[in-house]
Amino acid sequence: MLFLRKILFTMQFKGQILKMSSVLGNPINYYLNLSGDLISMNQLFGKNLHLKHVGYQCVNCGKDEKIYRMGFCKKCFFESPYASDTILKPELSTAHLGIEERDLEVEKEIQLQPHIVYLAYTGDVKVGVTRETQVPTRWIDQGATFALPIARTENRYEAGVIEVELKKHLADKTNWRKMLQDDRESEVDLIDFRNKIEDLFPKDSKNFALASEEIVKLDFPYEAPAKISSFTLDSKPEFEGVLKGIKGQYLYFNDGDFINVRSHEGYVIELGIS
User: Fold this and answer.
1) Is 238 left (phi over 0), alpha (psi -120 to 50) or beta?
2) C-alpha dihedral over 153, 175, 225, 146, to 10 degrees?
3) 242 is in which domain, residue-wise?
4) Boundary of a domain, candidates 217, 240, 264
5) 99 within a domain of the structure (yes/no)
6) Does 104 map to a domain?
7) Is 131 in the same domain as 190?
8) How many structural domains compose the chain?
């Protein structure tokens, strides 16, 4: 009888995982995207979630092919302009020169727009680049508790040139474990960091520098647990746990279990909620 009642009160969803959407707030509101259906995750805190991996759907071709990277199957990862080298290495951008890498029209759309070079605190201070239209979404996705724009450029290449110089002195990747522990927040002054590195800008890029004193602070629905461990749907294709919080693109479950939603883009799952 108890088993039947549990089935009756369980909501069931099935679909392709895309990165969680977010809406700025206190705290940030998260929405899990399953094949375009948005599920309000903040309303599920304290609920039991059952995840089951049942297949794949490439974010580009839509085929049920094993995901290689970034939601793409192997073929699409090496062919799609949305998975090109310039996505991860903006300094390689060539659209401003009219030079095609994979699809010039798509590359112009991505690269020929204002970009922001920023400092963000994600357990360590890191430097990064994002399209201006992706502020503050990019910082939310990275789990940054606060961030400071330090340059605004006209295209992706110009931002990449600045980042290349600054990452000789600062991290440019997020350490997921430090981000989830995040125990040094009160010790970090991003404006002081910016002032110390402003002389490191390339000579031809100094005109892009920003003197903003406005630090963007982000409030995540999350409190760090004593224990932190991550799992994937490859190592654990079926998982059940109580949702406790969210930070970045990580779902946090009881017992300190975490899963990175974005790294599972293109996976098809069944989701049960009770």
Assistant:
1) beta
2) -20
3) 2-71+223-273
4) 217
5) no
6) no
7) yes
8) 2
Instruction: Tell whether 177 is covered by a domain.
Output: yes
Residue 78 near residue 69, CB atoms below 8 Å: no
Contact 47, 254 (CB under 8 A): no
Residue 223 makes CB contacts below 8 A (sequence gap 6+) with 245
Q: Per-residue pLDDT for the chain (274 aa), expressed as one digit of tens each?
A: 333 334 444 789 999 999 999 999 999 999 999 998 999 999 999 999 999 999 999 999 999 999 999 999 999 999 999 999 999 999 999 999 999 999 999 999 999 999 999 999 999 999 999 999 999 999 999 999 999 999 999 999 999 999 999 999 999 999 999 999 976 667 789 999 999 999 999 999 999 999 988 999 999 999 999 999 999 999 999 999 999 999 999 999 999 999 999 999 999 999 999 9
Q: Is 85 inside any structural domain?
A: no
